[in-house]
Amino acid sequence: MIRDARVLRAGFVPREVEHRDAEVNHLSSVLEPITNGEPADTAIVTGPSGVGKTCVSKFVTERLREEVLDVEATYVNCWRNYSRFRTLYQILDDIGATIDIHRQSTPHDELIDRLQQYDGPRTVVILDEVDQLEDPSLIYDLHSMEQFAVICIANKEEELFSRVDDRLVSRLRSSEHVRMDKYHNEQLYDILSARTKWGLENGVITDKQLYQIADAAAGDARLAIGMLRSAASTADRENHEEITNDILLDAAEDARAQIKQKSLDSLTPHQRVVYDIVRDHGPLGPSEIHDRYTEAVDDPRTKRTVRTYLSKMAQYNLLEAEGTSRDREYSLVDSAATSPIQ
DNA sequence: GTTCCACAGGAAAATATGGAGG
DNA sequence: CCTCCATATTTTCCTGTGGAAC
């Protein structure tokens, strides 16, 4: 059933990127100066989830490293490393400059100094989910160091710009922008088809089924590949020769549930109680949510904290906020809104 | 209109957590 | 075990906004 599980895993960077030639070339041209040993400009990559932002960025830097000898590359997920310290540490760690850094003995600016003094090969720094960074001034610091070529990945450029200060906005506006849109169903089919060819035995899934997945994933390649992976692993576990329509049906739901579960798992117990309240009692305003929450737990947090929870969960796409002021209500995001497999 | 009040979300102070070194 | 220190989370205090009641 499964020939090579790697190609179905999240974060896999294929040998050839389908349907992103323009974006690949665009980003390559931004990094082009590095091939002559010159500093490269900052690039910004934007687009909704599952359009291949991370994939294209990694692909381009990997190809650059094939061409040029003296280039390093580092990838930081700013969602997981959202503080200035963590992000810097991650970068230094990747370029091998963390020896003798200890949290206690190393003041903050020491990390920046260390980066500035770094005189190894030029380094491409990919900052993924950069809009999650709590202190965006880090972008400015990196931007001003010639040694580093920065690729910023974000969902929406407005959200990125609204959080950084003016001098950085004007600099970033002039830097190269790679915008990506959702895949069309045909393109998703091609992607799935390529993964199937490398990852699965022949004939375990039909073209029609691949189109069904493409249709259900609504332009999101990560979701589509997740569905394919889930279907393949179920079929494999249950010793089927091929992927049946029943398996596919479950896999589609399973892939969505997995993505949601991942966010849900990152919530604290208190946040989870708040989430459950909104889930069970429909659209509610912050006051009523807090009242019910106070009833439900032993040591309730304050209203302000619960408001922070709510906006965090809205960011994670677990909840939806409607209204801007007194009329605000929170409700569960309707995951059934995306079309299921039929 | 005007007033009122719940809300959003920033800033900063206060408190809890966690990990290293004794 | 405990202490210390940086970091993480929570609380307190706050300003600005806009819907709702008057």
UniProtKB/TrEMBL annotation:
Record bears the keyword NAD: no
- State the source organism's domain of life: Archaea
Q: Which CDD domains match?
A: HLD_clamp_RarA (cd18139)
Presence of keyword Nucleotide-binding = yes
Q: Which residues form the AAA+ ATPase domain?
A: 39-184
An example GO biological process term is: DNA replication
Q: Keywords in UniProt for this one? A: ATP-binding, DNA replication, Nucleotide-binding
Q: Which GO terms describe its molecular function?
A: ATP binding; ATP hydrolysis activity
Q: What does this protein do?
A: Involved in regulation of DNA replication.
Per the record, the similarity remark reads:
Belongs to the CDC6/cdc18 family.
Q: What is this protein called?
A: AAA family ATPase
